[in-house]
Amino acid sequence: MKNKLLIIGASGHGKVVADIALKMNKWKTIAFLDDDKNIRSSMGLEVIGTSDYVFKHIDDYEVFVGIGNNVTRQKIHEMLEKAGASIPVLIHPNTVIGSQVDLETGTVVMAGAVINCCTKVGKGCIVNTGSTLDHDNNIEDFVHISPGAHLAGTVNVGQGSWLGIGSVVSNNLNITSGCQVGAGSVVVRDITESGLYVGVPVRRI
Ligand SMILES: CC(=O)SCCNC(=O)CCNC(=O)[C@H](O)C(C)(C)COP(=O)(O)OP(=O)(O)OC[C@H]1O[C@@H](n2cnc3c(N)ncnc32)[C@H](O)[C@@H]1OP(=O)(O)O
């Protein structure tokens, strides 16, 4: 483990990521990279360059992508992996994580989230504030589970899908890759085609 952490993205999501990293108390130095040259600091931490500077620092720093957009986060995460970056998992100290939970690199678990036993969360995922993933879920890479979303037991969520704030997914369901489920929406049947789904129960729009 390196004792320095570089977070790519210094705006909304990146700030929450930095807050978690600070609370984890694992790194001596935490800094940002951001492509907006007007942002010199964020959360009291220095922005030391634009994202292309990452290659200059890859040997000294662990690197984490603090960007909320699933597609952008995936692109940068995969580029970092290819370049051999060391990418941590970030877990807010006030989360509840069960036994045999597997969290892959580049994933962040935010305050108040609960992940129950035997759930797997892939690479570069966001398990946002106060969301719950019950037992035996399989969350594929680059998924975003928004604040307050609740997934019952044995739910599969395909790569790059985004479950909106306060959405609910009933047990034993599959949501395919590339889906977006709207705020407060409720999924009660499998979603087998990528697309945008809203309402109670969800319909495709
Ligand atoms: C820390 C953080 O901030 S994490 C981020 C959390 N943010 C979220 O979860 C945002 C989730 N986003 C939404 O729910 C959005 O409304 C989306 C993505 C589903 C749809 O956005 P858009 O594509 O812009 O759709 P638009 O607003 O034009 O709505 C299209 C129709 O769907 C309806 N609709 C949109 N969202 C929802 C919803 N969540 N539930 C029910 N109906 C909805 C609209 O009322 C509209 O209906 P109409 O055509 O009858 O008027």
From TrEMBL:
It holds the Pfam family PglD_N. It comes from the Bacteria. SUPFAM superfamilies: Trimeric LpxA-like enzymes. Residues 4-80 form the PglD N-terminal domain. InterPro entries: AcTrfase_PglD-like (IPR020019), PglD_N (IPR041561), Trans_hexapeptide_repeat (IPR050179), Trimer_LpxA-like_sf (IPR011004). Gene3D superfamilies: 3.40.50.20, Hexapeptide repeat proteins (2.160.10.10). PANTHER family: ACETYLTRANSFERASE, UDP-N-ACETYLBACILLOSAMINE N-ACETYLTRANSFERASE. This is Acetyltransferase.
